[in-house]
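Hello forum,

I keep getting stuck at the same step: I have a sequence, I want structure tokens, and every attempt I make locally crashes halfway through. Rather than fight my setup again tonight, could one of you with a working pipeline run this one for me? It's a single chain of 409 residues.
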Amino acid sequence: MTPRIPRPHRDDVLLGVVSVLVGVLLWALGVHSNATRHLLPPWAALVPLVCLGAMEPLRRSAPRVTLAVGTVGIVADQFTVGSLVTVLIFTDLMYAAVVYGRPAMARWLPVTTGLVTVVVTITAVAWLRTPQGLLVGALTGIVCFAPALTGATLRNHREAAVAARLRAEQTALLAEMDRSQAVAAERARMARELHDMVANHLSAIAIHSTAALSIDSPATSREALGVIRENSVQGLAEMRRLIGLLRDAGAAQEVAAVPSPDALGALVEQARTNGAASGLAFVLHDDRAPHGAPPPALPAPVELATYRIVQESLTNAVKHASPGTVTVRVARSGGLLRVDVDSPHGGRAAGPRAPGSGAGLVGMRERAELLGGSFSAGAAGAGAAGAGRPGAATWRVRAVLPAEERVAE
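Reply #2:
Ran it on my machine without issues. Output:
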């Protein structure tokens, strides 16, 4: 397939036509650049003029060809009476070759023309042995070196502008990616908070409402309604706190403090109330500090993650655990805080149960990994060869979190 020849630019065509017409006009008026030379007939000066003028429409699409023809034409013009327009056309072709040519051409043309100018100057001075030799060198530089240097300067400015635009576009793209990632991370954080705060209360409401509907006993119904009311009030308070945090920083200061491990006792007590109908008992072992001593402070994100992991684990135990004892252990060893929640697993559940979506395990794992910790959940204990095996006696949720602030190196 024959490559398609680009259509000449309209301005280049106009430049070529005007240049030839002006050159012919000057020739007709007897204006020549080498009027004393009569090696060829006067009309011979029109041949280089027309050839170089025909190259102007190709100055953008075929700069190498136009420069080669232009070089031959300017040399041939020196053997005729000459035309100033021919010289001007050649300077434009030299300039276009640097601006529109390949990068290699743009690099070597200014160097080559500079060397040619130096060589011509030295040769002219040595040959003529008069100051006119310097004039010949200066004219050579004006005709070939100056256009090449001007073209190289313009091309460098254009390339710098293109590079700056690309950097700006890349910066804007990276900023947009960062914004999207920040929005996604914030949405994931909000989803975790919303799930952990509301799921516990809604699970208790679902379990006790099912018990009230399935057991025809006024005492059971009254007890279930009491638990439902308590969880409804607490869930509403949690929702108000989250909405306050989302509105603005000023409202965030007016809402309740972020939950911490110090509130685990109240959390276990609430789970004990919610899981009584399912035959569950709950025990808390807080070994963060020696007996009688206040537990050392934890980073705020670790405190929140500890509370939420225990809260979600207890919620899952109320929904899925078999009758028995659910044990919560929180212990600190060195720079790590370990959280273990063991619940009965593998037997037939007694009492009503609430369905689960599996989002809780994902949220707990995300919380631990975002802090640089680890998380695991699965079957453990007697008969457990692997996580989730039906014959296992215990379902264990374990999280290991950093208990100290990390200093950036």
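DSSP finds eleven helices and five strands in the chain. If your local run keeps crashing, start a new thread with the error log.
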